[in-house]
Amino acid sequence: MSVSHLPAPEEKSGAVRSMFDRIAPRYDLLNRMMTFGQDVRWRRKAVADLRLPFGSVVVDVACGTGDICREIEDAGMTAIGMDFSFGMLAAARTSAPLVQADALKLPLRDSSIDGITCGFALRNVVNIGLLFEEFARVVKSRGRIAILEVSEPAGMLTRAGHHLYFHKVVPFVGGIVSDREAYSYLPESTAYLPATAKLVEMLDEVGFSAGAERLMMGATQLLVGTRR
User: Fold this and answer.
1) C-alpha–C-alpha distance, residues 62 and 83, integer Å
2) Which architecture characterizes domain 9-227 according to CATH?
3) How far apart are CA 181 and CA 176, in angstroms?
4) Do the Cβ atoms of 170 and 185 come closer than 8 Å?
5) 163-193, pLDDT tens digit by residue?
6) Cα distance between residue 126 and residue 184, in whole Å
7) Alpha-carbon distance 125 to 130, whole Å?
């Protein structure tokens, strides 16, 4: 996968899985460093905003090393983690059951779970629309979803500072600590993301009443929805 070019659609799935397998050992460390520890607060908020009862079953799609799974369990719910990357699952630190699975083909029955969380993975799937359709298929009526993803601040100066940090500092630090190619892809991959309003519209089209909230001056977005 080239640093200066995103993978072609037919190559994306394999390229992304290989990348996450490589960076799994230091993934959590880089997350804490590059968000100044704010990623922990964002994940906790995503789980809290599910507003699901004690004992609800929540699947964390693209669970990575299990950060959100731990928050789900701390909130008194049952977590199941699913990820495409064997490397991430091998590095996971959670007591939740873990399943290797394609997010576009979740191994779950229709209307079988109470909620879904998904952290910073939309830009890594081949088709976001199909991902949202899959969420709608497996979540029960009145079930909830909470999706974290990167975003861009609205203000011109804030956006310029964010762009400098995300596209220059992140690849530099990532290259020193982990894998420069991977941490160059991650900022570039925002090109795959529709605008926030479009993401909300896409969720509405598949059966969720959804809304969005900006976090950290707009650098992160949280999409929350209820299955109609």
Assistant:
1) 4
2) 3-Layer(aba) Sandwich (3.40)
3) 11
4) no
5) 888 889 988 999 998 998 899 998 899 989 9
6) 19
7) 9
